[in-house]
Amino acid sequence: MSALQEADGVIASSLNRSRFPEASGEKIGVMICGHGSRDVGAVAEFQSIAEGMRQRFPNHPVEYGFLEFATPIIRDGLDRLREQGVTRALAVPGMLFAAGHAKNDIPSVLNAYQAQNPGMAISYGRELAVDLKMLRAAGDRVQEALKSAGDDIPMHETLLVVVGRGASDPDANSNVAKITRMLWEGMGFGWAETAYSGVTFPLVEPALTHCARLGYKRIVVFPYFLFTGILIKRIYDYTDKVAAAHPEIEFIKAPYLNDHPMVLDTFAERLWEIVEGANNMNCQLCKYRAQVLGFEDEVGLPQESHHHHVEGIGTGAATGHAHSHAHDHHHDDAHDHRHDHDHHHHPYPHADHPLGPASMKEGGA
């Protein structure tokens, strides 16, 4: 048996558990907490994650909800669990990394709900994070794209660009860079770069333009995203735009993560971590707990959500809201991600960076 097959066996055996241990009189349910999107496809794909958890945990109720834009909202999902007799909810953020949404917004909603419903205890898990299973899923998606393109160009003449969502939390952004390096070294690319869809820098277009100058014959663009949405479409649009300006380079658009089995396995593991007391978030570089370079003024900021104004407004173009204030939410929509808002965000220290951080605009193609 190869080392890779042995590792797969360990992963499979560790997750082949469908029932959580319950104390006398306790009923455990699962709550998957998402950000939300106006894109109907993104909402449907998030729902598929909940369905995947239902298949893995058929003995427990599983519900889901969103912070904003989409329905059901998180409170609705928790209501449904309570209606099914759940007395303890295992809640996990449906997010790749722990930035403001996972650290502040979701916990604020969960804390408020538990205070209003003392008959239900809510235990909160950690984000998907940098995980071997997530790396396997990412590698599979990149390999899919390479296989479709053919093997006429060797890996050492191919450059990989990993595109993260981007956040005002440098710890979350650095995790995207770590994913890039792990894929680069693990798969043997000639070079690799990291870009972001908004809030931080570099954005997709300047990053790809920079990469095109490095002399590689092929560039693979991989959105390290869970779900589809406007940002995915814009990433691909900007890829097409830069490709048109550099016809001598082959550009390949790799698929995003979606419901890869290893992604679902990671969600399941996060739930078991709660039950087993191994639910440890990495706080060493958290800007709310330590004086991270450039973000020193954000230590100790209060934990609160700012999503009430767009909670549950729905998906699709017909449901867009009309508020015009600028803010740095990182939504799958057309907001300008400037920082002159009053939604309790601390000003991003590099808001005027020439390679960002205003999010990608429409018209990339």
Please describe what this structure looks like:
- The chain has helices at 3-15, 40-56, 74-83, 100-116, 132-149, 170-187, 204-212, 230-245, 261-276, and strands at 28-34, 62-66, 88-93, 121-124, 158-164, 191-196, 218-223, 250-253.
- Residues 1-7, 10-14, 291-295 and 317-344 have low confidence and may be disordered.
- With 365 residues, the chain is of the alpha/beta class.
- It has a domain at 132-253: Rossmann fold (3-Layer(aba) Sandwich).
- It contains nine helices and eight strands.
Write the layout of secondary structure elements.
Layout (H helix, E strand, L loop, with lengths): L2 H13 L12 E7 L5 H17 L5 E5 L7 H10 L4 E6 L6 H17 L4 E4 L7 H18 L8 E7 L5 H18 L3 E6 L7 H9 L5 E6 L6 H16 L4 E4 L7 H16 L89
Helix pairs in contact: 1-9, 5-9, 7-8
- Which fold name is given in CATH as the topology of the domain at 132-253? Rossmann fold
Structural class: alpha/beta
Distance between the termini: 48 Å
Could you name the CATH class of the domain at 132-253?
Alpha Beta
Low-confidence stretches: 1-7, 10-14, 291-295, 317-344
Fraction of residues in β-strands: 5-15%
Please give the order of strands in the largest beta sheet.
2-1-3-4
User: Any idea what the radius of gyration is?
Assistant: 21 Å
